[in-house]
Predict the structure.
Amino acid sequence: MLNDISAHLARHNGLSEDISKQALGVVLNAAERQESPFAAAMFKTIPGARALSARTGSEIGAPTGAIARLIEQTPGGKRVVAQSMIAELHRLGLDHKAIGQLLPCISTYMDEHHGLVGFGHLGDLIGSDLDAIAAAAEAA
């Protein structure tokens, strides 16, 4: 299954399968570090996805400790995770256009093949504080 999604990403984004798998690992690792429901759902659905995320995290030197992960979920931490994800994707040779196509492509694949919907852009993947912002505005 992991090879299938990598092949899909390669076909639809003009990447080699190796680069598409590495890019998927970068995206999954960033999502996992944010405790994204996207990552949890993919880990349940795609065998090997969790191992790919962990292996990628190790290769790029991503934090693994509980406290570091909590820090990464603060607003500033989310920004750093997103920036590091984009930097790693650039390192793999993806430009901004390719990165912009990658997330919706992952979403489309998961929707068409596994019925997982609702993840098509960076805010869905990394998470946002929009609910907290809306609640604070209501309380004010």
